[in-house]
Amino acid sequence: MNTTLSNDKFEELKKIGLARLRAKYNDSGSARITFNNRYDQKQTDEDVDLSGIVSEFAVADYLGLALDTSISARGDDGNDLKDDRTIQVKSTKYPTGKLLFDNFGKFVSDVAFLVIVSPDFKTTRIAGWISKQDFLAKAQTKDFGYGSRVFVSQSELNSADTFKGK
Predict the structure, then answer these.
(1) Which of 43, 3, 42, 4 is nearest to 21 (CA)?
(2) What is the pLDDT of residues 35-89, one digit of tens each?
(3) CA–CA distance from 27 to each of 15, 36, 95 (Å)?
(4) How far apart are CA 63 and CA 89, in angstroms?
(5) Computed over its alpha carbons, how large is the radius of gyration of the chain?
(6) Cα(57)–Cα(78) distance, integer angstroms
(7) Model confidence pTM above 0.85
C-alpha cells in the first residue's frame, strides 16, 4: 500500500513532528529525556520524528483511524494508534528494511506495522504488520553495528490488507 502526501499534508505533519521534537527539549536547549533511537548518524532527530509522524499518518489513514497529534515531552507510551487493539508503527528508509526493536520489552502493543518512507518523506509504503505473539515467536537477534536488536524481515509480516479484513 503506497501513499504520496500532498504538499499541504506534508507541511502539516512536518509541523507536528517538529513540535514533538521541540517538546523533548527544555528552555536551555538540553534534552529533557533520552529520546530518538537514532543509530544512523546520517539522520537528524528531525528526520526521525518526521519519519515517525508520516508513518503513523500512513497507517492511520489506511485503517481509517484518528491520528494522535498530541505533543508531549515524554513522547508516547509506545502505542501510536488504537482501534480494538493497540498499534505500534515503526518506520525505515530502507526498501528492504526490517521491523526491529531494541529488545522484546519494547514491543508493547498488540500489533506493529512497518512503513517504508522515501528519502523526501512524502511517499510511504506499508510493508505489513505482525501481532506481538507472532513477533515473539519469529523474531531473530542480530547486531546491526549498534548492539543486538530483535527483528523480523518483511517476508514475516502480514499484508496490510489482512488487518481487520481490510
Answers:
(1) 43
(2) 445 455 667 778 888 999 999 999 999 999 999 887 765 556 788 999 899 999 9
(3) 19, 19, 38
(4) 12
(5) 15
(6) 15
(7) yes
Three-state DSSP string of the chain:
CEEECCHHHHHHHHHHHHHHHHHCECCCCCECCCCCCCCCCCCCHHHHHHHHHHHHHHHHHHHCCCCCCCCCCCCCCCCCEECCCEEEEEEECCCCCCEEECCHHHCCCCEEEEEEECCCCCEEEEEEEEEHHHHHHHCEEEECCCCEEEEECHHHCECHHHHHHC
End-to-end CA distance of the chain: 12
With vertex at residue 154, the alpha carbon angle to CA 150 and CA 160, rounded to the nearest 5 degrees, is: 115
Would you state the cell numbers that stand for residue 73, as one nine-digit string? 515531552
Query: Within a 13 Å sphere around the CA of 138, how many CA atoms are in the beta-carbon half?
Result: 18
Backbone torsions φ then ψ of 162, nearest 5 degrees: -90, -5
How many other C-beta atoms are found inside a 10 Å radius of the C-beta of residue 129? 23
Burial class (CB in 10 A: 0-12, 13-18, 19+), 152: buried
The label of the residue with cell 508516547 reads: 76
